[in-house]
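quick q for whoever's on today - can somebody do inverse folding on this one?? i tried earlier but teh output was garbage lol. tokens:
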């Protein structure tokens, strides 16, 4: 088993390489099978094939590693570490032929995410980070922005409709206070915060496999990643990322409708 956060990256990159091939094979394929899960969210053949591939890779290379995945749940390992995978983050985009989707892979050890990869093959982009080693896009170091005034900030958000519990109560008030907004949603908005292209990104409903990789990438880029209540946890159920200086202001605004 790898002994450091950085040592996990080759394994995550190998899994991402295979996931990219599978995703691109199914993307915009007229024969793509799409089913509806009990929570009414879509799941595709690509989701299932990618997660099954990752689990096989774990068995072949790190059999002691546990796995937590969106489609097959948790499989305990004998090691303290586990792989957390979202095979297709942005499944609705994937189904509609929108190229904003990614495979998210992360290693959690002792309750801390120590390494993560977000690979978006249709965008030709991949982000990665290991604790203490910085964050990167396609091998280039990335850092959050230094903007400290909300009126100069770019705010990213996902769905503003009633689906997935709807947006936070203070979203309209926060939108009114920033300079610009963009509705990218899913993984991409958090990667853009990590790159310094925006200052705040909001996801009101998230699972651990949605949060794990973005958390380590944003934090290693110098930003913050918490739930709407300020909890720094991949189990918070929501995710707000920021460049840091604007984080508490954003959380307060989101909590209070205006």
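ok took a stab at it. sequence:
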């Amino acid at each position: 088993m790898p002994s450091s956060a950085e040592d996990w990256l080759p394994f995550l990159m190998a899994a991402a390489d295979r996931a990219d091939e599978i995703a691109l094979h199914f993307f915009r394929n007229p024969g793509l099978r799409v089913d509806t899960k009990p929570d009414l969210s879509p799941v595709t053949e690509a989701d299932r094939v990618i997660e099954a591939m990752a689990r096989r890779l774990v068995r072949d290379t790190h059999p002691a590693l546990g796995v937590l995945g969106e489609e097959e749940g948790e499989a305990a390992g004998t090691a303290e570490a586990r792989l957390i995978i979202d095979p297709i983050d942005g499944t609705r985009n994937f189904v509609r032929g929108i190229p904003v989707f990614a495979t998210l892979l992360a290693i959690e050890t002792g309750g801390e995410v120590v390494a993560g990869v977000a690979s978006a093959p249709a965008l030709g982009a991949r982000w990665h980070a290991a604790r203490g080693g910085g964050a990167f896009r396609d091998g280039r170091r990335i850092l959050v922005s230094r903007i400290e005034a909300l009126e100069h900030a770019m705010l990213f958000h996902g769905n503003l409709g009633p689906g997935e519990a709807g947006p936070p109560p203070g979203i309209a008030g926060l939108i009114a206070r920033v300079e610009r907004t963009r509705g990218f949603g899913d993984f991409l908005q958090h990667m853009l915060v990590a790159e310094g292209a925006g200052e705040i990104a909001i996801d009101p409903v998230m699972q651990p496999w949605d949060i794990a990789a973005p958390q380590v990438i944003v934090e290693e880029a110098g930003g913050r990643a918490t739930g709407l209540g300020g909890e720094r946890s991949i189990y918070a159920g929501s995710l707000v990322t920021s460049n840091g200086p604007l984080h508490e202001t954003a959380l307060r605004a989101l909590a209070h409708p205006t």
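fwiw Residues 6-133 form a domain with the Fructose-1,6-Bisphosphatase; Chain A, domain 1 fold (CATH 3.30.540.10). also The first strand starts at residue 34 and ends at 36. so keep that in mind when u check it
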